[in-house]
Structures are given as C-alpha cells and as structure tokens.
Amino acid sequence: MKADLIVGIQWGDEGKGKIVDLLAQKYDIVCRYQGGHNAGHTIVVEGKKIALHLIPSGILNPDAVNIIGNGVVVSPEALLKEMKQFDSLEGRLYVSDKAHMILKYHELIDKAKEKLRGKNAIGTTGRGIGPAYSDKISRVGHRLGELKDVDTLLEKIVSYFDSNRAIFDVLEIKLPDIDELKNELCEYKEKLAPYLADTTEYIWEAIENNKRILLEGAQGTMLDIDHGTYPYVTSSNTIAAGACTGLGLSPRDIAKVTGIAKAYCTRVGNGPFPTEDFTDEGQKLRDQGHEYGTTTGRPRRCGWFDAVAARYACRLNGCDELSIMKLDVLDGFDKIKICVAYEYKGEKIDYVPFDLENVTPVYEEFEGWKSVEGIRKFEELPESAKRYIKVIEDLTKTKVGMVSTSPDREDTIIM
Ligand code: GDP
Ligand code: IMO
Ligand code: MG
Question: Residues near ligand 1 with C-beta < 6 Å?
C-alpha cells in the first residue's frame, strides 16, 4: 500500500506531532525522513505531554513500528537519551544504517559559526544540523553503519580532524580526546546495534505486504533548503519530495499528502516573516498559543495566517488536504487578519518572490469568535469560525480535512 505523508506548510511547529500521533493509531509504520533533533514534536494525551525530537510521533501506538530514515541526521547521544523515556523499543524502532551521524564537534561548529555571524545569525537550534548535512554533501560525513567497525571509523574521524584543523583553530574548537571519543563510539555501537537496519528494504517490503505507512515531516516548507527563505532555512528538503530521498521511496509510493498549518503563523529564528505582528495582538497570540520552542525554549515570533505562502506550500507539497491547528488560540480576538496578497515593488502580487523580505502583506479582516476550545464537531463551531476555515480553503485552493481545537489528541474535528 502507498504511504501517506504529513508535512509542515509554514515555518515549523505547526502541530505535526499531534496529527501524526492521532493518525498513527491507524498505521503500522511511521517514518521520519529528514532533519534531526532540531525538531520538537509535542504530543498530549489525556493531559500528559511528551516531546519528541528524533523518534517518530508514532511511538505512542504500541503496535506501530517507527523508522528513522537515511535522510535524517542522527545524534546517537540525543537518540539514546530520547529512547530512555520508553521501555525497550527493540522491534519497534529501526534506524537507517545510511543515516549520517551528528557528533559533538558538529554542534560546536554550528554554535561557533552562529556566533561569528553576529547580527546575520540564522538563529539555528545549535544542534549541529547544518555542519552534519554539510559533511554529508561534501562526502566527509560518517554514517551510523560505520559504527560496526569502530577502529576504522575512528581513523576516518581523526583524518577528518587533521584535514580540518585550520577550521577548528579559527573557530576555537578544542578537538576531543581520542580515547574518550573511542569509548563514546563503542557505547553507541553497543546500544544502537539492535536498531540499525536497511530501512529502505524494510519499507519496500512493507509496501508489498500492504502495510499502512505514515511519513512524518519535520520543520516546515518555508524552512526548506531549496524553496524556503534562504539562507534563513534549515539544511534539508523539508517538503514532501524529501520523503523520497530520505527514505528511498519513489514518488509513486506516496498517496495522500496532508499539510499542517496553524490558524495563524509563527517562526523561530531569523529571516523574513511578512505577517509578523509586533503589537499587543502578536503578544496575545504568543501568550494564548504558548508559543515557546519545544527544542530551545525560545519565544516564537507570531503573526497572521499568510495565505500566499500557504498556497505556495500547498503547491510545492501537492497537498490533498490541510489540517488547521490551534484554532482555539484565536479565541477572543474581535477581528482576525489573513494575508491575501503581497505588495511588492509597487504592485500587488499573489506569489512568493525571491526576496520575501521586501514584501508588505495585504490583509483582509474577518469576524472573530468567543471560544472554540475543545470542540470536536464542525457543526458546533461558531459561524465566524466556520467562515474562517472556508476562507482558508478558498485562498489556499486546498480542502481542510481536520481542525484542531486543543493540544489534546481527542480535541480534533475530522471533516
Ligand atoms: P510540531 O513541531 O509541528 O510537531 O509542533 P510543536 O509540537 O513544536 O508545536 C505545537 C504546539 O502546539 C505543541 O505544544 C502542541 O501541544 C500544541 N498544539 C497542537 N495543536 C493544538 C491546538 O489545536 N490547540 C492548542 N492550543 N495547542 C495545540
Ligand atoms: P519542528 O519539526 C521550527 C529553524 C531554526 C532556525 C532554522 C535553522 O519542530 O517543526 P537548524 O538548527 O535547523 O539549522 O536551524 O530552522 N528550525 C525550526 N523551527 N520548528 C522546527 O522543527 C525547526 N527546526 C529548525 O529555528 O531558524
Ligand atoms: Mg516543533
């Protein structure tokens, strides 16, 4: 059976974790295909909160197998730490032996380069994502499968240190003690051995055997390395296409694509964000939406739904449907704004230009509502909320299939 896909269509943190967890109850396999522990996917079940960074959000379905694909950059340290919060995951979690490793020095390089960039910093999560993907593309990275032979891996890492010594010196990064590094790698080898696998073969077989497979994107479309607000992006292809390279699937293996969007918009880190609201209204969105990062705790920048960027994202991902999240966060606003076009070089445009930092949003205002929190049936939504969803459908040219009205798994309208 073909796989279904969940993808963020804004700047990340749209609520992908909640929807993957909800849908995962009906899937046999859930797969991450890109990014790393820069992601923070929060799941709330009966008031209990779990934050996942690397482990797919299908982990709360005891019958689902979870896969971390070759396109993910994996910090063994972060993965082992995350695995500790669960009982044994053997037979329930597989990690591609082709996935590249994030080691401590990647994190140090990430942080040192951000410091050097000063006011031009990207605002990365400091998890070593960029440096690990750079090494992969430069063909000097190290894959998890190499842990099988620690001595050879260690030799390669030492040779990497030698040829990059000048960079480490400039960035004032102290190289690790080689004996300590060897011990660390041996620990990773021992603890991760039961989980490393040829995940591509595993998924191909699952497709043959009609297993139900869900693919979980991390970050969001506007953070895509090719199609996002470069250079203020992450270092992977966050869009649906990334699932093909990041797992070894062909485009024909993918069935339904669901885009996840907040009913408003947020962004963490730097870079263009046309609908950002710097007034009390923006602060109200942050307060009501608890908009503080799951991974870094940073306050998220908040603003209004950007229908131009959302339509662009729906086209890039081929979204069949949208899930509109956090509708309840708009409770109590008299008027709600949606960006319906941009003003750009004296003209009104309806596309995302090369230099998004130079647009001014054109807004339309809609009636607000009192409360939608916890509503589980579309018919029970206030008329103005129903109209708001309809406007999003019209502007994005995409059907809304789900609406979320609280962090809890159950508080979801399925249309
Ligand atoms: P992800 O990275 O896309 O998985 O999203 P995050 O987990 O980083 O951020 C979404 C946050 O919003 C989490 O804290 C969720 O628990 C929360 N959330 C998800 N859906 C809703 C909703 O409908 N209403 C409210 N109030 N919170 C939600
Ligand atoms: P989830 O999966 C929101 C942002 C960072 C920074 C930029 C580059 O939870 O939606 P990186 O560390 O990836 O090199 O940082 O990307 N970023 C995210 N923003 N949600 C995420 O993940 C993000 N992962 C990275 O804030 O602006
Ligand atoms: Mg997140």
Answer: 8, 12-18, 40-42, 44, 294, 325-326, 328-329, 404-407
| pTM for this predicted structure | 0.97
Q: Which of 13, 97, 110, 306 is flagged as catalytic?
A: 13
* Domain 100-194 in the same topology as domain 3-74+200-414: no
Known catalytic membership, residue 13: yes
Q: How confident is the model at residue 200 (pLDDT cuts 50, 70, 90)?
A: very high
pLDDT of residue 28: 97
Architecture (CATH level 2) of domain 100-194: Orthogonal Bundle (1.10)
Residues 6+ apart with CB under 8 A from 100: 73, 74, 132, 133, 135, 136, 141, 142, 143, 144
Residue 8's nearest CA partner among 76, 57, 61, 62 is: 57
Query: Where are the chain's structural domains?
Result: 3-74+200-414, 100-194
Residues with CB under 6 A from ligand 2: 8, 11-13, 38-41, 122-125, 127, 129-130, 218-220, 223, 234-235, 268-269
**Active-site annotation holder among 21, 28, 41, 110:** 41
Helices (H) and strands (E) in the chain, counts: 12, 20
* CA angle in degrees (0–180, nearest 5) for 51-56-330: 50
Each residue's pLDDT tens digit, 59-92: 999 999 999 999 999 999 999 999 999 988 999 9
Angle CA 340–344–346, to nearest 5 = 115
Task: Classify domain 3-74+200-414 at the CATH class level.
Answer: alpha beta
pLDDT at position 58 is 95
Ligand closest in space to the Cα of 42: 1
Mind listing the pLDDT tens digit for each residue in 132-160?
Answer: 999 999 999 999 999 999 999 999 999 99
CB 354, CB 272: distance < 8 Å: no
Instruction: Find all residues with CB under 8 Å of 328, minimum gap 6, and list them.
Output: 371, 372, 373, 374, 405, 406
